[in-house]
Amino acid sequence: MTAIAAAHSHDAAARDSAEYLTFRLGAEEYGIDILRVQEIRSYENPTRIANAPRHMLGVVNLRGVIVPVVDLRIKLGCPSVEYNGLTVVIVLNVKGRVVGVVVDSVSDVLELPRDQIRAAPEMTSTTVDTAFITGIASVGERMLILMDIEALMSSPDMGLMDA
């Protein structure tokens, strides 16, 4: 196989799968595109901002960059639990903006073949927002909810990005 053919087949293979960082919110396990993740940090109390939405915990100083921190449990309506030693902040780069999201714990990085990802079920309930769910993947006994973290973080109700 020539170098060009090998590179082309590698590109095709790369499009046939994607890598996801998996994390937990309560009993549910989620996955987000690993390419959006800048780093994972231990949780530290952010500086609260007056009149911020409930899901906006505040801001932290990350090496001179002021980073807004969102609690995904609150934003997604998950039951609230105490922050503990497993609680982490996933630092994301979304549309050129650095944002932190608090999750219960980080599991691992999984490479998922595209054919292993199923469409999110259609739901007519007004309490379930499936707009930010890109699919569902079964990994062994685990059910992984794949989330479009960029769309969620840049949605108007988050108040993080310019229109």
How is this structure best described in words?
With 163 residues, the chain is mainly beta. It has one domain (19-158): Beta Barrel (OB fold (Dihydrolipoamide Acetyltransferase, E2P)), CATH 2.40.50.180. Helices cover 13% and strands 45% of the residues. It is built from 3 helices and 11 strands. It has helices at 3-15, 72-75, 149-153, and strands spanning 17-25, 28-33, 37-42, 56-62, 65-71, 88-94, 97-103, 105-113, 117-118, 133-139, 142-147. The strands form 2 sheets. It has a 6-stranded mixed beta sheet with strand order 8-1-2-11-10-9. Strand 10 and strand 11 form a beta hairpin. It is globular and about 45 Å long. Residues 17-158 form the CheW-like domain.
Which terms would index this structure?
OB fold (Dihydrolipoamide Acetyltransferase, E2P), 163 residues, mainly beta, CheW-like_dom_sf, disordered N terminus, Chemotaxis protein CheW
In short:
The chain is mainly beta and 163 residues long.
From the alpha carbons, calculate the radius of gyration and give it in angstroms: 17 Å
Name the CATH class: Mainly Beta
CATH H-level superfamily title: CheA-289, Domain 4
- What is the CATH topology classification name? OB fold (Dihydrolipoamide Acetyltransferase, E2P)
Organism: Tepidimonas aquatica
Keywords: Cytoplasm
Domain CheW-like: 17-158
Protein name: Chemotaxis protein CheW
